[in-house]
């Protein structure tokens, strides 16, 4: 995947802890999150399942969308995820990643 601005939401599990991020390379960022290479919130809380993402035309647009979503209340974020991913499937698997080991 070429560089493409993207806003994404990771979750620890269904209705679990959420993380909203922005990147210019979703595949590389997913590797970082899934392999625990980014210290901090996502590593500490086991937040690595891709449950929603949205491509943007520019990085500025992606950052604006990220800031908007971060201001939303939790119910709005859950509704956004469930509109396109009602079963909270790890969308990264569809992008070629191995499923996350639930015992890890």
Automatic annotation (TrEMBL):
Pfam families: GIY-YIG. InterPro entries: GIY-YIG_endonuc, GIY-YIG_endonuc_sf, UPF0213_domain. Residues 3-79 form the GIY-YIG domain. It comes from the Bacteria. CDD domains: GIY-YIG_unchar_3. PROSITE patterns: GIY_YIG. Gene3D superfamilies: GIY-YIG endonuclease. Belongs to the UPF0213 family. PANTHER family: BSL5627 PROTEIN (PTHR34477:SF5), UPF0213 PROTEIN YHBQ (PTHR34477). This is GIY-YIG nuclease family protein.
